[in-house]
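Sample 3 of the quickstart, ligand 4'-deoxy-4'-aminopyridoxal-5'-phosphate:
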Amino acid sequence: MSLDIQQIRKKFPILDREVNGQPLIYFDNGATTQKPKEVLDVLNHYYEYYNANVHRGIHTLSQEATDKMEESRRKVQAFVNAKHEHEIIFTRGTTEAINLVASSFGELLVEGDEILITQIEHHSNIVPWQLLAQRKKAVLRYIPLSAEGILDLSQLDQLLTNKTKLVALNQVSNALGVVNPIKEIITKAHQVGAKVLIDGAQSTPHIPIDVQEMDCDFFAFSGHKMYGPTGIGVLYGKEELLNLMPPYHGGGEMIKEVNLDFSTYACLPFKFEAGTPDVAGIIGLGAAIDFINSIGINEIHDYEMSLIDYTMQRLKTLPEVEIYAANAPHSGAISFNLKLDGVHASDVGMILDKKGIAVRTGHHCAQPIMKFFCIPGTVRISFAIYNTKEEIDQFIEGLKTAIRMLA
Ligand code: PMP
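Result:
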C-alpha cells in the first residue's frame, strides 16, 4: 500500500508554520514528535466536555472520564500485545517507568546482586541503576561496545552470572539510532534467571512491538515520542512480577484500606498509580495509538526505513560527514559529525535552523557513548511519518551550506 504522506501532513497543524522565514522541516522527532489534529482534538474535547476526576466519582462525567481512560489502557495493551490490561501502568514517561522498576523491583535486590546495562543507554537508563546500586550495595556492570560503537556481545556469557538480577537496555539507541539485538540478550539473561527491562522510548514510534513475543519482563515508553501528549508514558510489566513488587508511590488510588498503623494496597495496575492520573494525557495517548493504527505500524516502519536508507545514501556522498555506527541496523535516527577542525555539532544545528530545519545537537542525554567516541556531541536527524525525501534533499543542501561556511 502506498501512503499519502501529503494527506498525513495535513493532520499536523504545526507543519504549516515557518521558522526563520522558511517552511518548518522538523527532524527532531527522537526528542518529541509533533501531534496530529485528532490528538489535539481529543485533549480539548476532554477538557471542554467531560473533565472530571476518575475512579472515585459515581457521577456521569467521572464515569465517562474513567471509561475513556480505561479504554486507552486497552489500546496500549493491544498496541504492545500485553497479555492483560492490568499489566499496563501509566507513568509520566519512560524516565518514571524505569525509576519505578529501579525503586520497586530494586527493593527485592540484596547486597552483591548484579545489574547489567550497556554503554549505549540514555541517562534515564543509567542513573536510576547507579542510585539503586548505591542503595542496595549492588554491582552495576556494562555490556561494552565494539570500536564501531555497537554492542559487543562476545563477553555476554561472562557478564551474566547467577547474581545478575536485572538486565536493562534500549531497543533502539536515541544517540545513534542503532537497533540493539535484544532478543539474544533477553534469551541469555533468562537462562541465568535475570529479568529484563527494555527501554522502548525510541522503538515504539517506529517498530511493531509485541512484548509477549519479545518475552521481556518490563517495557517502558513515552507517549510524546509517538504523536501523543507530553507527561504520559507506560510501564508494561509481567503480572507475576508486578504482583511481587512493593508499591512505588504512596497516596490515593493505590490503596485498598488505610488504617492509622498500616495500609493494604489496591490490585494491579492501581497499586502503582498513586494520585490523580494525567487523565487527558492518557486519553491523548489512546488517540495517538488510533492515529498510528489508522496508518499501520508496519507501513510506518517501512516508509521510515526508506527515509533512513535515502538519508544514509545521501550522507555517504559527502566526504566531510562521519556517520556513527553507519553499518549497523538503524531505526528512526542517524547521528553524525562534520570532520572539520574546531567545528561543533551545534554550529551545524544553528546553520540548519536558519533554514527552518530542526535537528538535535549535543550529547542526547547519552554522555557515556559520546565519551566512548571522544566527542562532545553529534548532529542527530530523526524521522517521523510526516517527513519526506524532499525534506531530506533540503537538509542535504543545508548541510552543504554548513560545510562551505565552516570549512
Ligand atoms: N530512553 C530513551 C532511549 C530516550 O530516547 C528517552 C528520551 N530522549 C528516554 C529514555 C527518556 O524519555 P522521557 O524523557 O520521555 O522520560
